């Protein structure tokens, strides 16, 4: 994985570029107050984008359009991140506030530079993915030709409201690129996903894609996965047995923690788009995610788990000081 020490990079690259909003070659980032003007200012904003061949400078779409950033600019009826019901999401050491919404938008918008006309795109779920999809909707309205495969019913509704052409994975089984968010981004771009409950479709879509790019605000970066409870999608049939098998398998790996059945506001079990339950496993630290993934996959009642290992090849991470890219 190519990723320099975060604080070194901030010192060497980002802070050095802070406040420079022009389109000059050395422009890599912008700091707090400048960010606010940058996301609203028309004009082109170069961003750093990594790749297997090293860091290069790419361009964000020519216009950071005002309408993309304003809730009241969304089409009537389109869901937006302020409407997301946080009560179904497990708590996981997140920060909140307007700044974080802006960071999600920055990450989503930065991902647009990887989208090309003619692509078949997997559309991830969650508020960061939705920021990307709204920005994508603007480009589609301008003439960009893509077809999207949504990872949840919610995202399908959002994309439809934005007139983004959609397909299914059965009609379009080979995708060029999936862009999706994450609950945690660990070493080697191992991810925890599924906070929004869409992990099964997200994993099916991501692994049907040549590439997956993960987009996130900086609070998602971790040294060890597991502070965010790991979502494990299970069949409702035999829940008690499956839960006991998960607990035993985890214990063999030295992992202890509550396996909470995810519930909705009403106290009823949360049901995924696929008709399954989710257990949120609070292991706190998962030092060997590969071993846990293998153990979970051997349990019959486990439909899927939220460990995405070896799937994402690029992360676009928005910090208050600018965009960081991490490649694997
Ligand atoms: C949904 C997911 C999301 O990508 C993940 O929960 C991140 O969500 P957000 O962008 O809202 O923080 O995995 O199942």
What do you see in this structure?
With 328 residues, the protein is of the alpha/beta class. The protein has nine helices and 15 strands. Helix 4 (98-111) packs across helix 5 (127-141). The radius of gyration is 19 Å and the shape is globular. Residues 124-129, 180-183, 193-199, 202 line the site of ribulose-5-phosphate.
Annotate the secondary structure layout:
Blueprint: H1 6-17, H2 32-40, E1 46-49, E2 56-59, H3 66-69, H4 98-111, E3 120-123, H5 127-141, E4 147-150, H6 153-161, E5 175-180, E6 184-185, E7 191-192, H7 199-207, E8 209-217, E9 230-234, H8 239-252, E10 259-261, E11 277-281, H9 289-297, E12 302-305, E13 307-308, E14 314-319, E15 322-327
Parallel strand pairs: 3-4, 3-5, 5-8, 8-14
Antiparallel strand pairs: 1-2, 6-7, 7-13, 9-11, 9-12, 10-11, 14-15
Helix pairs in contact: 4-5
The site of ribulose-5-phosphate (5RP) has 18 residues, from helix 5 and helix 7.
**Helix segment tally:** 9
> Which quaternary structure do these chains form?
single chain
- Radius of gyration from the alpha-carbon trace, in angstroms: 19 Å
Ligand kinds: ribulose-5-phosphate
H/E element string?
Answer: HHEEHHEHEHEEEHEEHEEHEEEE
Mean pLDDT: 78
Number of strands: 15
The main sheet comes to:
6 strands, mixed
Overall geometry comes to globular
Strand content: 15-25%
């Amino acid at each position: 994985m190519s990723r320099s020490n975060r604080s070194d990079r901030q010192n060497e690259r980002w802070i050095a570029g802070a406040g420079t909003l022009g389109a000059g070659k050395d422009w890599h980032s912008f700091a707090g107050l400048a960010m606010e003007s940058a996301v609203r200012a028309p004009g082109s904003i170069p961003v750093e984008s990594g790749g297997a061949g090293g860091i290069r400078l790419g361009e964000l779409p020519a216009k950071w359009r005002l309408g993309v950033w304003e809730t009241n600019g969304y089409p009537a009826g389109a869901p937006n991140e302020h409407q997301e019901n946080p009560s179904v999401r497990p708590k996981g050491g997140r920060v909140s506030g307007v700044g974080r919404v802006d960071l999600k938008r920055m990450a989503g918008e930065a991902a647009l530079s990887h989208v090309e006309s003619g692509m078949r795109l997997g559309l991830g779920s969650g508020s960061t993915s939705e920021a990307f999809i709204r920005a994508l909707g603007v480009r589609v309205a301008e003439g960009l030709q893509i077809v999207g495969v949504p990872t949840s019913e919610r995202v399908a509704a959002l994309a439809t409201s934005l007139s983004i052409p959609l397909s299914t994975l059965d009609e379009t089984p080979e995708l060029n690129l999936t862009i999706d968010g994450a609950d945690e981004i660990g070493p080697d771009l191992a991810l925890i996903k599924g906070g929004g409950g869409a992990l099964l479709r997200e994993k099916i879509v991501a692994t049907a894609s040549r590439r997956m790019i993960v987009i996130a605000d900086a609070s998602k970066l971790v040294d060890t996965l597991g502070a965010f409870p790991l979502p494990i999608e299970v069949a409702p049939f035999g829940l008690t047995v499956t839960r006991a098998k998960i607990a035993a398998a985890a214990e063999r790996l030295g992992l202890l923690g509550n396996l909470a059945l995810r519930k909705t506001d009403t106290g009823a079990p949360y049901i995924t788009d696929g008709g399954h339950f989710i257990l949120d496993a609070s292991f706190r630290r998962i030092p060997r995610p590969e071993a846990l993934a293998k153990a979970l996959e051997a349990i019959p009642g486990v439909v899927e788990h939220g460990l995405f290992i070896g799937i994402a090849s690029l992360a676009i991470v928005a910090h208050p000081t600018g965009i960081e890219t991490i490649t694997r």
